[in-house]
TrEMBL record:
Molecular function terms from GO: ATP binding; proton-transporting ATP synthase activity, rotational mechanism
Keyword Membrane: yes
Gene name as annotated: atpC
Coiled coil: 97-127
CDD domains registered for this protein in UniProt: F1-ATPase_delta
This protein's record includes keyword Coiled coil: yes
Keyword vocabulary terms for this entry: ATP synthesis, Cell membrane, CF(1), Coiled coil, Hydrogen ion transport, Ion transport, Membrane, Transport
Protein localization: Cell membrane
Gene3D superfamilies for the chain: ATP synthase delta/epsilon subunit, C-terminal domain, F0F1 ATP synthase delta/epsilon subunit, N-terminal
Family: Belongs to the ATPase epsilon chain family.
Function field: Produces ATP from ADP in the presence of a proton gradient across the membrane.
GO cellular component: plasma membrane; proton-transporting ATP synthase complex
Descriptive protein name: ATP synthase epsilon chain
Oligomer and partners: F-type ATPases have 2 components, CF(1) - the catalytic core - and CF(0) - the membrane proton channel. CF(1) has five subunits: alpha(3), beta(3), gamma(1), delta(1), epsilon(1). CF(0) has three main subunits: a, b and c.
Amino acid sequence: MATMHLSVVTPDGSVFDGEVEMVSVRAESGEMGILPGHVPTVAPLKIDAVRIKYENKVKLLAVSEGFVEVRSDAVNILAESAETPGEIDPKRARIAKERAEERLDRINEEEIDVMRAKLALKRANTRLKVSEGS
Ligand code: ATP
C-alpha cells in the first residue's frame, strides 16, 4: 500500500514521525481524509481527534489548534498540543471539562471569556474521546 511521511510536532517536541497510509483531520473547512498524492495545501485545524492509519493499525491523537501542511509525499501537523490515548490523564480532562461547563453556565452572571471557555471545553471533550478510543 502507498505510504507518505507524517510528522506531528508540538512545542514540547515530536509526537509522531513515520510512514502512514492515511491521515484524517478536521480542518476549519471540514473533514479531510489525506491519502498519498493528495493535492498540496495548508489548512488550519480545529480541536479534534486526528486519525492515523498505518501498518494495519489506527492511532488516535487528541490535537488542539494548529495547522496541517499537505505535500505530495508528506503531511506535517503543527499543533499547540497533541496527545496519544496513553498520554491523556482522563481525570484532568474531566476536571477541565467541568470547569469550562461551569464557566459557560455563568455567562449571564459575570464577565466570562466565552470563546476561551468553549475552546477549553472542546479540548477536554477531545481528550476524553481519544482516551476512550473513539
Ligand atoms: P488544563 O486546564 O487541564 O491544563 P488545557 O486544555 O488548558 O487543560 P492545554 O493548554 O491544552 O491544557 O495543554 C497544556 C499542556 O498540558 C499540553 O502539553 C498538553 O498536552 C497537556 N495536557 C492538557 N490536558 C491534559 C490531559 N488531560 N492529559 C495529559 N496532558 C494534558
